[in-house]
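Quick entry, no commentary yet.
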Amino acid sequence: MKPRDKYLKLVVWSEEDRCYVGSVPCWIDACCHGSDEAEVYRELCRIVDEWIEIYRKDGRPLPPPTNRDYSGRFVLRTGPEMHRALAVRALSEGESLNSFVVKSLKKTVQQGRDGQMT
């Protein structure tokens, strides 16, 4: 595993810039762009390698890794009113609370991929 593999690298389409933009969440903001998604990813990998080398030369610790395995479980604090509203909505649609929330989250994430949400 290369050190860069510890970091989540994102290449997303920017409607505003009309090109793909690469970044590393929680570390490197938008730092490269272009019309070819794969080339932007390769450039992003080179940039991450360069930053890792700079940190090492300066004797600075690298940021915490952001690319990891996920269990599929997380705790969500909504407050009692939201919890009740979600539970009632799920029941009215004949679904469990978990199923309803997962479906809602999937819809939101998919909208973000389609460029409809930021």
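second:
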Amino acid sequence: MTRREQIVYKTMSENISRAGEFGLCPGPFVAMRAEYRRVVRREQTHFLLEFMLLALLIFALIAPWRASADTPHTVLRVEWGEDVDSHDTIVEEDPDESERILEAVKAKSNVLEDCFVTGYCADCVEKYAHMNQDEFGRVLTASGQWVYPGSCVATDPDVIPTGSTVIIGDKTYIALDVGVIGKHVDILMTHEEAAVAGARRETVWWCEE
């Protein structure tokens, strides 16, 4: 991991600890940290594959020039079974712990049946033109907080107050944006995800802490 990625991940972990100290739901912070870890891991995997392909290309270019009649053939063996995560400095999170946190939040949450669920992005809907994106891909919400797509939802504050923890299916979000009316939850997504998200009716859990 780069120094910047280590600082971001450490800050997310500290937010989870602070949430517990102040009696807040740690669910949304855990979800944000897990999503960040997934993105970092994917980038590391892509970098490793690109490096291996580059090494193979270099070998293929220089091998003919080094070959000779009395020199044994060189065999290049690529091992695909190596665990890429073995060099990852991020500590693996126990899936059972995440499940217990999710169930604990649901147990003390309000239930909103037959809720209208949609998706939006920061730059594809005109009424969200006030939102900005920074160089890290974060989006500025109406609450004034910067968040990553996939971690935040827009709600009607009269139905689900801003700052609430919101659970849809097995995913946890935090309500930091507005712009919808009634029993409607709009999930902040990337442009590509929002283009195919569609609309559906689902049961939504939320708690205000």
